[in-house]
Write a structure and sequence with these properties.
Length: about 350
C-alpha cells in the first residue's frame, strides 16, 4: 500500500485530471512489489502442483488403487488444461473443462479406497492449474499497465514538434528519424543485411508483398526453442503518393500479419508514410482505424500487437503522427487479452 495515500480520503477529489495521473503514478510505484508477490504465488502453486502429483500417485499405490492409470490420466488432464489457454470462446473453454472433470473423476477412482482424499487432491490439482492461469493473466496486465504508463509519461515530457530530418526521399528520412529515436533500430541499421529498401516479402499464404523498407532482428535461439529470451522485432515502412484509404490500411495490416506469420518475427513498428499538402488530412474512417485497430500476430503461443502509425510530412518540415508510438520499440511481450 502506498503509505502517503493511506491517510487521505479516497472520496475527496479536487482536480479530476490531475487525480487520474496521480493515481496512475501511485499504482506504477507499486508495480514492482505486485510483480514480486505474483512471482512468489506462482512458485508456491507450482511447487504444490508437483507435490500434489506425487501425492495422487502415492495414494493410488498405498490404498490398493491403480497408480499406473492415475499417472497416465495426468496426460489428458494437463493437455486439456493447457489447451484452455488458447481457446478464447467461453463455450469452447466450457467443453474442455467438462472433459477435464470427466478425466478427473476417472483419476479419483484410481486412488483406491480413500476416494474422498483422492477427490480433494485431484480437485486441488485442477484448481492449482487454474490459479496459475489467472496469475499469468494478472502479470500480463501489470506488464501492459507499466509499459503504457511509461509511454504516456514520455509523450507528455517529449517535444510536441518533431522535425523531418534530411534525406533523399520520405523512406530515407523516416529511417533516419527511427535511427535517431530508437537505439534498437539504430543498432540494427548498422548490421549488414538487416535493412532492405525496398523489400519483397513472402507471407505464410505464399503471397508476396512489397514494402519500401524493412528492418528486422532475428529472434534468439533460446526463443525459437523454448519461447524464452528475445523474440526479435521487425519494422515495416510503406509510402503512399496520396492519402491512404481504409482499403489500403486493411491490405497493409493483412500483409504484415501474413509476413510475420511466415518469418516468426513480431512487428514492432509499422510506418505508413504520406506527404500532405497544406491542410490535407485523412478521412474519419482512416483516423478511426489508425487509433483503434492493430496488427495482431500469434507466434509460439504469444500474441503480439502493433499499431499502424501514419507519419505525415507537413509543408513546414514537421511530422504529424497518428497515433504517436514511442519507445520501447521491442515487441517482446504478448498483450493481455488485446488479442
Amino acid at each position: 500500500m502506498d503509505r502517503e495515500k493511506v491517510t487521505t480520503d479516497a472520496r475527496a477529489v479536487e482536480d479530476p485530471i490531475a487525480a487520474i495521473f496521480d493515481l496512475a503514478e501511485s499504482v506504477d510505484r507499486q508495480t514492482p512489489k505486485i510483480r514480486k508477490t505474483l512471482r512468489y504465488v506462482r512458485w508456491f502453486v507450482s511447487v504444490w502442483l508437483l507435490l500434489d502429483f506425487f501425492l495422487i500417485v502415492l495414494t493410488a499405490a498405498a490404498f490398493r488403487g491403480a497408480p499406473v492409470l492415475a499417472l497416465l490420466l495426468f496426460v489428458p488432464i494437463v493437455v486439456l488444461l493447457l489447451a484452455m489457454r488458447s481457446v478464447s470462446g467461453s463455450s469452447g473453454r466450457l467443453v474442455l473443462l467438462v472433459f477435464v472433470l470427466i478425466f478427473g473423476v476417472l483419476q479419483v477412482l484410481t486412488t483406491g479406497t480413500l476416494v474422498f482424499l483422492g477427490a480433494v487432491l485431484v480437485a486441488l490439482f485442477i484448481l492449482g492449474f487454474s490459479i496459475l492461469e489467472l496469475m499469468r493473466d494478472l502479470r500480463s496486465f501489470f506488464d501492459y499497465f507499466a509499459l503504457r504508463h511509461r509511454v504516456i509519461q514520455r509523450i507528455r515530457q517529449a517535444d510536441p514538434v518533431v522535425y523531418v530530418p534530411e534525406g533523399k526521399d520520405a523512406v530515407q528520412r523516416i529511417l533516419t528519424y527511427l535511427g535517431a529515436t530508437s537505439s534498437d533500430v539504430r543498432g540494427m541499421m548498422a548490421v549488414p543485411g538487416a535493412v532492405a529498401t525496398p523489400a519483397l516479402l513472402t507471407g505464410k499464404s505464399g503471397l508476396t508483398y512489397s514494402f519500401d523498407a524493412y528492418v528486422r532482428r532475428q529472434s534468439s535461439t533460446l526463443w525459437r526453442i523454448t519461447s524464452l529470451g528475445s523474440a526479435g522485432f521487425a519494422v515495416f515502412v510503406k509510402a503512399f503518393e496520396r492519402a491512404p484509404t481504409l482499403a489500403d490500411l486493411h491490405s497493409m495490416k493483412a500483409a504484415i500479419e501474413d509476413v510475420s506469420g511466415a518469418t516468426k518475427i513480431p512487428p514492432a513498428r509499422i510506418l505508413v508514410l504520406w506527404r500532405s499538402q497544406g491542410e490535407q488530412s485523412v478521412t474519419p474512417d482512416v483516423y478511426e482505424f489508425l487509433t483503434k485497430e492493430s496488427a495482431r500476430v500469434k507466434i509460439r503461443g504469444s500474441t503480439f500487437v502493433c499499431s499502424l502509425e501514419l507519419a505525415m510530412e507537413r509543408d513546414d518540415g514537421t511530422y504529424d503522427f497518428i497515433p504517436v508510438v514511442v519507445e520501447p520499440v521491442m515487441a517482446g511481450v504478448g498483450s493481455p487479452a488485446s488479442a
